Amino acid sequence: MQQSVRDRERELQILAGEIAEMGGLAESLVMDSVTALTRIDSQLARTVIAGDQRLDTMQRKVENHAVEMISAHRPTGKPLRELVAALRISSDLERVGDLAKNNAKRVLAIEGRMHQHRVALGVEHMSEIALEQLKTVLDAFTSQNLSAALDVRNRDDEVDAIYTSIFRELLTYMMEDPRSITFCTHLLFCAKNIERIGDHATNIAENIHYLVTGEQPAEARVKADTSAYLPADFSKPPSGSP
After folding, report:
1. What is the spatial distance between Cα 136 and Cα 52, in angstroms, rounded to a whole number?
2. How far is residue 115's CA from residue 179's CA, in Å, rounded to a whole number?
3. Within a domain: residue 240?
4. Looking at residue 238, what is its pLDDT?
5. Of 14, 65, 139, 218, which one has the fewest beta carbons inside 10 Å?
6. What CATH number does the domain containing 45 carry?
7. Nearest Cα to Cα of residue 52 among 11, 3, 100, 9
8. Is the pLDDT of residue 217 over 90?
9. What confidence score (pLDDT) does residue 228 get?
10. Per the structure, how many domains does the chain have?
């Protein structure tokens, strides 16, 4: 019996290491996708797209490992919650990789088109915050630090608020200069992808809460993305119009 418990604990540590490895790759893909966007670096964008396949493979490995452990050890209580959390978190990290890949594809779509570097700076700033939250919550998973996880969850509105600001700014650029519409539209999708990465970090935080306490957070998370309610003001013609 004691040997079985020791084996299970060792396997859980290995599984946590696999999640940490996934997290490191996901962070790298996001950082590289944003760098590719700000520099319009098609080569780096293609590297991100290829790297996402590796993250997918790692997610399947975690999934298979967790299922095998459930079958072999039939855990209950916290050990079972650790396995469930690992499955959920690996899925969130796989989605983070998909979002980074989608941004990289946008880089290839706007390559060679008119663009303004300063317009992308807001997306870069938002990605820095989202990445900080992702790193913090992955560290919280490793240490099972509930306080740090809840701090990430409570800060989700920061990324949402920046996204709303970027949405306003890009709408203004598009109305003022129709030539910027293609670039700004792609950039809007990129900004939304970064906002979604922040949401996945929050999902991970909630799964840490479940892992540690056995319960989901009682209060619904606060959302500060109000872009869906922003009216577009077409009463003024774009600058340069007759």
Report:
1. 22
2. 9
3. no
4. 40
5. 218
6. 1.20.58.220
7. 100
8. no
9. 54
10. 1
- Domain assignment present for 237: no
**pTM metric for this prediction:** 0.87
Alpha helices (H) in the chain, listed in sequence order: 2-39, 42-73, 77-110, 121-143, 146-154, 156-176, 181-213
pLDDT digits (tens, 9 = 90+) for 82-134: 999 999 999 999 999 999 999 999 999 988 766 666 778 888 899 999 999 99
Across the chain, mean pLDDT equals 88
In sequence order, the 6+-apart residues with CB closer than 8 A to the CB of 122 are 162, 165, 166, 169, 191
Report which of 143, 142, 158 is spatially closest to residue 202, judged by C-alpha positions: 158
d(CA 194, CA 99): 7
pLDDT tops 50 at residue 216:
yes
Share of the chain above pLDDT 70, in %: 87
199/160 Cα distance (integer angstroms) = 9
Query: Which structural domain range is residue 116 located in?
Result: 2-229
CB atoms inside a 10 Å sphere around CB 80: 15
**Within its chain, how far is the Cα of 173 from the centroid?**
26
Please report whether residue 85 resides in a domain.
yes
CA angle 47, 52, 54 (to 5 degrees): 100
Q: Give the distance, in angstroms, between the CA of residue 221 and the centroid of all CA atoms in the same chain.
A: 16
Q: Which of 225, 205, 193 is nearest to 144 (CA)?
A: 205
Confidence grade of residue 199 (pLDDT, cut at 50, 70, 90)? very high
